[in-house]
């Protein structure tokens, strides 16, 4: 089970991952759903500030977010083609085709 203090903010491109993470025991939120609830999360800076103010890890595909998070010391998980390629390669190495 996940640590209760670990909070995750899922960028809008992966809306729905918040629900999957919640099923795994994480406290996860979606930028898209937070916007629908009235949070002003329309610009990059506001999303990053929200993650920082709420002690969250930002999960995103946006490389600009990663750069801003690194500069600000905010935890971020970048899902990009390199990460996806690593997963595919690892699966291919461990399958008998």
UniProtKB/TrEMBL annotation:
Pfam families: DUF5615
InterPro entries referenced in this protein's UniProt entry, alphabetically: DUF5615
Native source species: Marine Group I thaumarchaeote
Name by which UniProt lists this protein: DUF5615 family PIN-like protein
Annotated DUF5615 domain residues: 7-65
């Amino acid at each position: 089970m996940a640590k209760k203090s670990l909070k995750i903010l899922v960028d809008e491109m992966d809306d729905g991952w918040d629900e999957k993470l919640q099923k795994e025991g994480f406290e996860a939120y979606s930028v898209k759903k937070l916007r629908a609830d009235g949070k002003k999360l329309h610009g990059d800076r506001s999303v990053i500030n929200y993650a920082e103010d709420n002690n969250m890890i930002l999960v995103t595909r946006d490389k600009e977010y990663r750069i801003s998070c690194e500069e600000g010391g905010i935890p971020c998980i970048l899902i990009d083609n390199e990460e996806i390629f690593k997963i595919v390669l690892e699966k291919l190495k461990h399958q008998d085709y």
